[in-house]
Amino acid sequence: MTTVTAVPERFPARRVAWRAIAAVLVGCLAAPAARAQGTKGVSFQPGHHGNKLSIDVNGKNLSEWTVTSIPDTIVITVTPQDSLGNPIPLVGYEIQVWDDRVLGLVGSTIGASQAVSKIVPRHTGQTTIQIRGSGVRSWVLVELGPTTLGFGPREGQLAQRGPSNNVMVAGGRLSYALYNYDFHNQTAIDGKGGVVVEGFLGREYDFGLTLVLGAGLGFLSADSLGTSVTAHELEAYLRGDYAFMRESKVRPVVSLAGGVYRIRTGGGAPGIWNTSIFMVFGGGVDYTLSPKAVGEFRVSSQQLFEQNSQFRQPGGASANGYVGNLLVIGAGVRFTF
Fold first, then answer.
1. Continuous segment of H or E residues that includes residue 287
2. Cβ atoms of 214 and 237 closer than 8 Å
3. What's the topology of domain 52-161?
4. Would you say 149 and 67 are in contact if contact means Cβ atoms under 8 Å apart?
5. Angle at 18 (CA atoms; ends 14, 19), nearest 5 degrees
6. Which of 17, 42, 151, 152 is packed most tightly, with the most Cβ within 10 A?
7. Is 29 helix (H, G, I), strand (E, B) or coil?
8. Residue 93 and residue 132 in contact, taking contact as beta carbons nearer than 8 Å
């Protein structure tokens, strides 16, 4: 019997190492080509590195400035991609309209690798849509005209145009005013409550500031030596309101105003008779009622001063100085046009 033993073939270690290195190099060169052949819609963009957001507006890719007719609903489709154009998971999706008077965000449907947001046109003007997702941020510049909708990437020359929607405003307000009469710490007159009616006209700026010129008529009650009297107030003012969180439907607001006033109970007879300047400090909220209407709620302190009296108090005391204040709680409506 003859026994045959198979001896394993042995290769020198150096030859094995070279073959392994060659295999790795071939794999690195062949893999990208094979992947590219099996991938649809791959876009190679010179000079682009890292992830990006592919944005379609009503089926049109956001690549250049585009003008269309105004649709009932604007559909924005966002797909995050890698540098080769391959879809990647969508993480941390967020969409924000800078000025909700121009466009209103209805809602979003967010998937694993794509998000679809719906926006409705509102008031003519320009605004910017900010989109975030998968660590990337993009901006869409939108211009809503009377009959057309223009949109494009907010970069380069388009960025210089900037969103702008400074509009004229007009409105009115009805307030309850708690009258505190404190001229030279006297005790003869005790201020009570009353109402103030205001009307105003001004301009609203797209960064959150509203400046208005206004006038008011007040009917304030007071006790004068035990007798109930009505003090009529006339005022004219310049007021500035600054709104925070411009993208929200409900926005906190701070207010500052200054103006002139007159409060009097009658003619030249003794009573309440002051006329000079006032300052207002306050705050509240704005609430979007419609694309052209904003509800206002304010709480403010109106400080009254007498500065131009030509008379002297009994005993030689000055007739000028701090008169008192009005604690004003009111609500109104502001319209844009």
1. strand 273-290
2. yes
3. Immunoglobulin-like (2.60.40)
4. yes
5. 115
6. 151
7. helix
8. yes
Q: What is the CA radius of gyration of the chain?
A: 35
- Quote the CA–CA distance of 140 and 197 in Å, as a whole number: 42
The single residue listed with the structure tokens 């009959």 is 147
**Chain mean position to CA 249:** 9
pLDDT at 119: 95
Token pair of 316, please? 């030689």
Comparing C-alpha atoms, which of 294, 310, 304 is closest to residue 325? 304
Task: Give domain limits for the chain.
Answer: 52-161, 167-336
| Helix, strand, or coil (residue 330) | strand
**Do 80 and 111 contact (CB within 8 A), yes or no?**
no
Mean pLDDT score across all residues of the chain: 79
Instruction: Look at residue 160 in the predicted model and tell me its pLDDT.
Output: 39
**For residues 295 and 142, is the Cβ–Cβ distance under 8 A?**
no
Q: What does the alpha-carbon distance between residue 123 and residue 44 come to, in Å, rounded to a whole number?
A: 39
Torsion sign (Cα): 11, 13, 15, 18: positive
Classify strands 94-97 and 136-144 as parallel, antiparallel or unpaired. Answer: unpaired
- Residue 9 per-residue DSSP state: P
> Per residue in 265-303, pLDDT tens?
865 556 677 888 999 999 999 998 876 789 999 999 999
Do the beta carbons of residue 53 and residue 81 sit within 8 Å? yes
- The label of the residue with tokens 């819609």 reads 41
Nearest 5°: the CA angle 241, 168, 195 is 50
CB atoms closer than 10 angstroms to residue 8: 4
Amino acid at 25: L
Give me the CATH topology for the region 167-336. Porin (2.40.160)
**Residue 145 exposure: Cα atoms within 13 Å on the Cβ side:** 9
Q: How far is CA 246 from CA 47, 116, 209, 291, 315, in A?
A: 36, 23, 10, 14, 55
